Amino acid sequence: MMQFTCPHCGPRAQSEFIYERTVDSVVPLDAPSQEAMAKLFTRSNPRGVDDEIWRHTYGCRAWMILTRHRVTNEISGCRAIGPEALP
Amino acid sequence: MINFSFDGKAYTAQEGDTLAAALLRNGIGLVGRSFKYHRPRGIMTAGVEEPNALVTVGEGGRAEPNTRATDVFVYEGLVARSQNRWPNLNFDLGALFSLASPMLPAGFYYKTFFGSAKRWMLYEYFIRKAAGLGNAPTQGDPDRFSHRAAFCDVLVVGAGPAGLQAAVDAAEAGKRVILVEQDNILGASLIRDPQELNAVWISATAARIRAAGGRILTRTTASGYWEHDLVTLTQRLSEPGQIPVNGVAQRLWHVRAGQVILANGSIERPMAFAHNDRPGIMLSQALRSYVRRFGVVPGKRLVIATNNDDAYKTAQALKDAGAQIVAILDARPAPAGANSGHRVYNDAVPLSTKGARHCLKSVSALVDGKEMDWDADLLAVSGGFTPVVHLHMQAGGTLDWNEDAQAFIPASSRQNVTTIGGAAEPQPIFKMVPVSKPKKSFIDFQNDVTLADVDLAWAEGYRSVEHLKRYTTLGMATDQGKLSNMAALGRLAEKQGVAIPEAGLTTFRPPYTPVTMGLIAGAGAKDAGAHVRRLALYDLHAAKNPIWQPLGYWFRPRAYPNGDETLAQAALREAKAVRNNVGMTDVSTLAKFEVSGPDAAAFLEIICATTVGKLAVGRGRYTFMLREDGFVFDDGTVWRLDENRYLLTSSTGGADRMATHISYVRQYLCPHLRVSAVNVQEHYAGIAIAGPTAKAVLATLIGEEPPRHMSTVPAVIAGVPVIILAASYSGERAFEIYVTASDAATVWTACETQVMTVGGALYGLEAMEFLRIEKGHLVVGGEVDGRMTPYDLALDKMLNKAGGYIGASGLARPALSETGRRQLVGLEAIAGDIPEGSMLIPSEGASPQGHVSAAAFRIIEGGSVALGQLVDGFSRHGEVLIASSPTRGQKARVRVVAPHFYDTAGERYRD
Amino acid sequence: MTEVTITTLPAAPLHVFEIWGNAASVAKRFKAAMGFALPATGRSGGSDALRLIRFEPTVWLVEGDVSALSAILADDGAVTAISGGIVRIRLSGPSWRTLLMEGGVFDAEDPAFSAGCSAASIIDHVNVRLHVINDDACEAYVPLSFSQGLLHFWKEAAESLAA
């Protein structure tokens, strides 16, 4: 089980988080059909670093983008996503 | 004095004895039979690496098979039994396999048991009987198992001299420290070799660690090293088979450490020579432990075979204890051992042993090229030391080859782990090559693998160490090759003509030592392994003793039988009550979201594929949601409670994923919207009242005219504020009453009283299924199975023409509205009952063109009806097909019809 | 030192207080009206009469009388009732931290997790929000449907903390 440093809560166990998808597979709301399908189905799957979207579902419920190395599990970055919030 | 029994005979042990020590103390040398050849085996080690002395400890559900006798401490009343023997340990018929051993080479199963799968089943029965370990208990384990988390700055594994020092240094530097030791006392190598650091130093150091706030866990094994410095520890709170004091037998710790220090030490290696597996042949350090720690001297005439200095300490310990040191066979050339005061033979490599009935008689060796032999009843061997690198390797580490020690030592790691002590700096040894005949020269004692088996695997073309492992079974079972891997690697490297590091290594996987299933299950061992989600109205339902039905993690009443009614009878009675009069049911588990804010409607028009913005305050409508690829995701209803406040409901089974989806859309895709979407699934309990008299019942309850179909009003029932939604799933005039869950019992009771007054009934999920199938309403997970588009379900007319919803662009793909897709149909039986889940075929033997997703019958008139998916089903009404379920041996002839069997005009729920 | 008392507290009004925009000015209005600041991440604020716990970056759980809050939010947020779905369970006695380690993944033994701190985590597969009252007590906000299961788990675990 990995440990992620939530931008809001600090280091927490992976089991508090749910994986959503990689950043490159986010389908913008106004994406035309072809682009939307490319986002969903023709994605890169690097054996290395990728930007992943996770949600601290069982913690602060906030979303974040985690930069993770898929082989070593090294986490090289994590930034918060979401509406404007107080510090 | 502690009383225990072994194979039914009573013995006594001393306080602190392991079972192995106690057996040796009682003169018992023969402890088990080997896995394949049923050879007599004794105690070889004094630790978790023991390959031979496997016993079943405890009785009934507490029985623990394959327990290492070296890894269980004797307690009053311990019951141990030997394994893999019949009829008994001394006379084992299975030992006939040993005579047949030339016919049982490596890969024996693969070579012998050819033929059909059926024949393999027969072979397997006998193989399982003959080859094996202990039997799993058939009764449930009465004990509990705990899982506990812990966090520390420094986790130290191993409480030998290096580990104790590291732990005290870290603790006194103000760090949160956990020190774990698999033994039940601290000290490790210091227990057998006290030297200058003795028991006084050990206890003083332990006291300093505790005083500085450190935590010391004994009888605890660090068994797994996972990601980001998470280490799992398995702690024995009671011994195998023992009744635990607090009801908890073991604890699994999940320790997240800032830094891990491994002070695991090393495991001594045996040597390969013929008949090196007799009882009476032990590892040198183990023998020393029995003498010094337990005061047990398991023989009188000792021969030692070694390639290093350490074994001389064993000679000294045995001499001190009064045993005769017959000879020390030192593989090293002179003058190694010259000043030891013992009879030392240099350039001496063991060849073979002879034995009498289950004990050792003599040892022979090649000394400087000449064969010699000695009478002895005890043989201590020391073939070098293998650093325990398991955790380091599980952490993703690499190894370096240490030529002097002929051993792999920990190198780098991507995690925050360091190895110290003996495992980092193993003792130097002399490199030796086995000279004995390979046939009976065992290298893996637990799996009966000999040098000859490795040679055979090589001859048959197995080159990789991973293949060698699978083919010979080397390194498997409880010891996982702790003693055997290096010997096998040495032989493989010799065959390949390369150095050992180039021969490769098998993967080190958790757990380091065997872990019982109960410990892994933890608190989940006692039930389904997951909590049942309990309805707010659970107590009221339970009082009626319903038939319960699991629905996801929920349990919901399936039916409320009267007296001796069966499920089918009860459900039919309940469904008829809804069709003819009134019924009520608990719909609390539906997903519910309260969506507020100036952008609430805009947000809902992104989530839902239907229009929402046009809803007037106090009105609601059916809605459905799509995935991004255009397929139907879920369905429900949306209600405008106020100018800027909506209530969205969706399916029970999809509640969690819908909550995640809504959060994703709101937080990730639409952070700019002025909206608050709150999951109120559990805040509101839901009660549905349905039937031709439902309106009258509700009018009495709320004291006013109930809202018309698809309208909502706030109201008060029995003094409790509620929200009434006029919606129908059953096809009758119906209302859903939403009430704060903590007040739900009051409202339910008031409703039930009124429903019963007019002769209505409670109904459960089974009746609800009958009702909705007859009406042709969809269920998510049934008709909505993730492969159906709005077109396939005839929902396309409801799509928001303005688009903008999730899935709109996915749905625009031409293939999703072309012909040839499966479409929702109704099915009416011509003869027989339609089997649920059956396939739809035009004729016997033809390929399926669809399937039945839900089957029921007409509630009043009778007759089997169903909903299903059929290729181009919309245009095939009137066709006759076969609904066939070969697995159940059931079939029915069916006519394809529209998916509505009841009140197709929808007149019954409108005023 | 292995004592912990587990008490289910009576139902109380609980609301979600969510800010969707102009967060800084809402915070200013809140402080002016209520006399204390909106608590930061992982913290609670207020008093027994009205307590707020930061639940999410933009969401606070409100325990107590919310009548003044809608006016403070104006068009920048919403208040939504959630009390029916949550059961409050009080863990009191010197061993509440140890009990929370059973089946957990969160470091409740960290001394920095002290009075006024709050965290959500998973305990025996159940999503639980914790709020430290003082050194001797912690309150847990547990989903109603899981509360019986978790109470059972806690009661069994409490008996064996000494082990």
TrEMBL record, chain A:
This is Sarcosine oxidase subunit delta. Gene3D superfamilies: Folate-binding superfamily (3.30.2270.10). One of its GO terms (biological process) is tetrahydrofolate metabolic process. GO terms for molecular function: sarcosine oxidase activity. It comes from the Bacteria. It comes from Sphingorhabdus wooponensis.
TrEMBL record, chain B:
Keywords: Oxidoreductase. It holds the Pfam family GCV_T. The keyword Oxidoreductase applies. It comes from the Bacteria. One of its GO terms (molecular function) is oxidoreductase activity. Residues 537-800 form the GCVT N-terminal domain. Coiled coil: none annotated. Residues 439-522 form the SoxA A3 domain. InterPro entries: 2Fe-2S-bd_N, BFD-like_2Fe2S-bd_dom_sf, FAD/NAD-bd_sf, GcvT/YgfZ/DmdA, GcvT/YgfZ_C, GCVT_N, SoxA_A3, TrmE/GcvT-like. Gene3D superfamilies: 2Fe-2S iron-sulphur cluster binding domain, sarcosine oxidase, alpha subunit, N-terminal domain (3.10.20.440), BFD-like [2Fe-2S]-binding domain (1.10.10.1100), FAD/NAD(P)-binding domain (3.50.50.60), Probable tRNA modification gtpase trme, domain 1 (3.30.1360.120). Belongs to the GcvT family. This is FAD-dependent oxidoreductase. It comes from Sphingorhabdus wooponensis. The lineage of its organism: Bacteria, Pseudomonadati, Pseudomonadota, Alphaproteobacteria, Sphingomonadales.
